[in-house]
Amino acid sequence: MSGCRVNVDAPEVAIREIRIGSITGFEGTAGQLVQCARAGKLRENKRTFSQCMGCSSGNAFCQLSMIQDAAMVNHAPVGCAGDFFAFNFVYRVGQMERKLPPVMGRYFSTNIEEKDTIFGAVQKLEATIREAYARVKPKAIFVTTSCASGIIGDDVESVTDRLSEELGIPVVACFCEGFKSKIWTTGFDSAYHAIVRKIVKPPRRKTNKINIINFWGSDVFTDLLGPLGYEPEYIVPFSTVEKLEHIAEAAATIQICPTLGSYLGAALEQVYGVPEIKAPLAYGLAGTDAWLRELGKVLGKAAEVESIIAAEKEKILPQLEAYRAKLQGKSAYVTAGAAHGHALLALLRELGLQVQGAAIFHHDPVYDNGDPRSDMLAHTVKTYGDIPNYNVCNKQAFELVNILHRVRPDLLIARHGGMTLWGAKLGIPTLLIGDEHLGFGYQGLLRYAERILETLDNREFVTNLAKHSTMPYTRWWLDQDPYTFLGGCAHGNVD
Ligand code: SF4
After folding, report:
1. In terms of Cα–Cα distance, which of 452, 441, 89 is closest to 286?
2. Fewer Cβ atoms within 10 Å of its own Cβ: the N or the C terminal residue of the chain?
3. For residue 236, is the peptide bond before it cis, meaning its omega torsion is within 30 degrees of 0?
4. Following DSSP, what letter does each residue of 36-103 receive, concatenated?
5. Considering only CA atoms, which residue is closest to atom 4 of ligand 1?
6. Closest ligand 1 atom to the C-alpha of 76?
7. Top mutation candidate among 75, 147, 149 for ligand 1, by most atoms within 8 Å of CB
8. Ligand 1 centre from 378 Cα, in Å?
């Protein structure tokens, strides 16, 4: 399967199911999943019961809502704004970490009501955009759409085009209706499509900046890129409209997770010729070696990179061996989004843990660049061997609890807040790391190992919690096959 051709003339980007064949249901081993995807035989195992779903609109919002001088208009019923507070919380915490002035998120809702679904809501949209502009004077306004605005067929693009002219700033439509895709990471693509179409300007010159497509992780790239003569440009959260206008001038683009930045990396390369680093992620020794060598090749700094690899490895290997000895015989289970989850599997194997399985929120058989070197799961399986109990599971807690109840790992690693309680309720020490850069590179192995050991040392808390917790799932369910509702013969995916 190849990647996608980016078309910035189209108002919307196709959803991931159509564009790159992504799925949300699979059960087998990681190796079987990789083999299926490579053979072009991946198919969705549809769940006959589903407990919850994410929403593309939320993922689009998570990228656009922390641009420092932009405002957001969510063209939706007010219920879709229920997670505004969470984004504002992350925004405020990130401001403190980055020593930015404290500012509230500038988020507005058009509050589509029942009568608007009959008569249309474009007048409300226009009024809300004007109100947002009058109140906070943003440098750009992003309009995120919703199921309701999509179903009633509001012509959002003509409103945003008209208001752009009237207000003299980019007013940009981002089409991310939740009902259109089961893969909520489609919302990242919608946000990036909006940025590349309407914000990014053609390059005036090349700079020494390197785009880092990330969420809100700590700054680990200044130290890494500085010796090579480059500076990180973290995008999109905590960027500014002006900085985003010039990301096509960067020397390269780095993904901290291709599940996040797949579309933006490919779009910048295809539309503006900014090379994307196409390699396994820098998690674990082999991944970091491969990633750094590709970076060196793209930047024309191969010799310097070889020196960095040798020096850094020499520095960390004794401590790594010490951590491996401490972690020997320990087992772990991972629940996380796709590529970052694959990277955590590599990292755990590198630290010598036995990985008992993973519940990963979706699977992209290919990324938008179409390059198999970016397939972190394939790299992990090839480097460290197969991983059993690999479940593609879009946060279905009933499956996760059933599996955890069976495998009883020493440690649960969870990437998303709502998932940690399930391990804790079962008395399993559970580690959540919000900083997605913590495990990056050689030093990241040591940082992560330290956090794992702290978590394993603090077992008493979850032991007590489990004693006083109840589970919503009955004995009947825990005795069933965890994949009972996963659409028939899940292994039919693999020859
Ligand atoms: S856009 Fe649709 S799926 Fe998303 S929060 Fe609103 S109603 Fe729910």
Report:
1. 441
2. C
3. yes
4. HHHTT------BS-------HHHHHHHHHTT-TTEEEEE-S-GGGGGGHHHHHHHHHHHHHHTTPPP-
5. 178
6. 6
7. 147
8. 33
For residue range 104-146, what is the model confidence (pLDDT) as tens digits? 999 999 999 999 999 999 999 999 999 999 999 999 999 999 9
* CATH code where residue 92 lies: 3.40.50.1980
Reduce the DSSP state of residue 411 to 3 states and report it.
Answer: strand
Q: pLDDT tens digits, residue range 321-330?
A: 999 999 999 9
Q: Which domain holds residue 161?
A: 56-198
**Residue 193 shares a structural domain with residue 328:** no
Give the pLDDT confidence of 458-486 residue by residue, as tens digits.
999 999 999 999 999 999 999 999 999 99
Among 80, 54, 66, 83, which residue's Cα sits nearest to residue 144? 80
What string of DSSP letters covers 65-80?
TT-TTEEEEE-S-GGG
Rounded-to-integer distance, Cα 258 and Cα 56, Å: 17
Is the distance from the beta carbon of residue 149 to the nearest atom of ligand 1 less than 6 Å?
A: no
- Residue at a domain's end among 174, 198, 222: 198
Structure confidence at residue 233 (pLDDT):
97
> What average pLDDT does the segment 380-400 reach?
95
355 found inside a domain: yes
Question: CA angle 392-396-402, nearest 5°?
Answer: 90
Mean pLDDT for 248-272 is 96
